[in-house]
Design goal:
It is built from eleven helices and 19 strands. The protein is of the alpha/beta class and about 400 residues long. Helix 2 links the parallel strand 1 and strand 2. Helix 3 crosses helix 4 and helix 4 packs across helix 10. The structure holds flavin-adenine dinucleotide.
Length: about 400
């Protein structure tokens, strides 16, 4: 699958930060991880810190999948509002899902500090805008539900919004918990640490066959090498559907742009993270080199040829929407790209295993807050592999 259009922003900005050999012999290990994006890298770090013998296999270059295209807004906010999620699964599970996403941002900050990596991690407020007047009522209810769950969130009305921004909206929610980062750099740093911990990383190696058995999992690569592992973790992102017996994700296309560095940000309160109630939504942040990073205009198909042909038109539309919001900011588009994107029916990730594939674990952080899901998954799957009970596994299991 072609996950991203040519030349997404982060690899152009950072270059190739790490290269690894491809696998050319048979190997054995405790755990094999398929996929060297942010999910696989977080997993490798967690498992190698536990002293497990880890092999990670990536079919492209490390970080060259969806991770290279991510706008990397770190939000605890799930695409499905807390009120709606409560209707689906009850208050306890819904609040817990929000709490886990909330805390995973703190966890990323801890990791960034621990690895001492310069990956432009910065705490930011997250502002959720009412796209239509009538969404104000939904936001009031959502605000009350989140506050009751112990989340620091405030309701803004028209006057509050006009005092902070160059545009007007009927309502918005401001959350203090939010952040932004360079996910591509963090991915490479996590894998470097994993290698220091003894993990073996191979890129340009495709897993073509997976045979789970009673004693372990046997995987065969495109060069015919065999990996014999006690357990396997599929951190294969939007391509994971190929390994699963039933459809769990709707694949779409999303579009993004990075501006030239901006002199100033008039009308953009604290350069907060911004998104909105409309579906699909516009999502915005800034970078540490003073760019605006904006995404949206999602399409309900994933055909990469069709998607890539639309990059200019879609990103022009995104730029126009930005100019409507911030007329005093002179936006010049510097980079444009598109990527495949996945959503689940309830906005929750799928993390865990399926009956048909024993000793295999899946990290499918689908949804707008995919990165926070990957952080949650690293803990849940580590516990499953080590045989530790974790009651949170219930929330993200496949047969929910
Ligand atoms: C344009 C865009 C904007 C986004 N914005 C945000 C955002 O603001 N905030 C947020 O939280 N999330 C965002 N996301 C989602 C987020 O980027 C993803 O959730 C995250 O990058 C997924 O990481 P991953 O490691 O699971 O997948 P990937 O980065 O795709 O990594 C999976 C890897 O598995 C490898 N692989 C697949 N099959 C095999 C195989 N058979 N053998 C070996 N290797 C294999 C692939 O090559 C790939 O590198 C965005 C996504 C896109 C496309």
């Amino acid at each position: 699958m072609d996950l991203v259009s040519p030349q997404p922003f982060w690899p152009l900005k950072n270059g190739l930060l790490g290269i690894y050999p491809s696998l050319r012999e048979d190997v054995r290990c405790d755990v094999v991880i398929l996929g060297g994006g942010i999910s696989g890298a977080l997993m490798a770090e967690r498992l190698s810190e536990e002293g497990l013998d880890v092999v990670l296999v990536e079919k492209r270059d490390v970080g060259a999948g969806s991770t290279s295209a991510s706008t990397a807004l770190l939000q605890y906010e799930i695409d499905t509002p807390l009120v709606e999620l409560t209707g689906l699964y009850g208050i306890e599970k819904a609040e817990r899902a929000y709490r886990l996403c909330h805390d995973s941002i703190d966890e990323i900050e801890r990791l960034v500090d621990k690895l001492d990596v310069e990956c432009a991690f910065q705490r930011k407020k997250s502002v959720y805008l009412a796209s239509r007047r009538r969404d104000a009522k939904l936001l009031r209810e959502e605000c009350a539900a989140r506050q009751a769950a112990g989340i620091d969130v405030t309701y803004l009305d028209v006057a509050d919004i006009s005092a902070r921004f160059s545009f007007s909206r009927e309502a918005a929610l401001v959350s203090t918990q939010g952040a932004e980062l360079d996910c591509y750099v963090l991915t490479h740093a996590l894998l470097k640490r994993s290698v220091q911990n003894g993990a073996r990383v191979f890129d340009k190696t495709i897993i073509e066959k997976t045979e789970p058995g009673a004693d372990g999992v046997r995987l065969t690569t495109d060069r015919g090498c065999v990996i014999q592992a006690k357990q396997a973790v599929f951190a294969t992102g939007y391509e994971s559907q190929d390994f699963l017996p039933r459809k769990v994700v709707s694949l779409k296309s999303t579009y993004a742009l990075a501006s030239e560095p901006l002199e100033a940000f008039p009308g953009w309160w604290e350069q907060c993270l911004l998104w909105e109630t409309a579906r699909p939504y516009l999502y915005l942040r800034t970078t540490n080199d003073r760019r605006a990073l904006i995404g949206g205009e999602d399409d309900a198909f994933r055909n990469p040829v069709r998607r890539d042909a639309l990059v200019d038109r879609k990103t022009d539309r995104i730029a126009d929407k930005f100019r409507e919001l911030f007329p005093a900011i002179e936006l010049d588009v510097a980079f444009r790209w598109a990527g495949t994107f996945g959503e689940t029916k309830d906005g929750l990730a799928y993390i865990g295993s399926i009956r048909q594939m024993p000793r295999c674990h899946f990290v499918l952080g689908f949804g707008g807050n995919g990165i926070t899901y990957s952080v949650i998954a690293a803990d849940l799957i580590r516990d499953a592999i080590l045989g530790r009970a974790n009651s949170d596994a219930e929330i993200f299991r496949f047969d929910r």
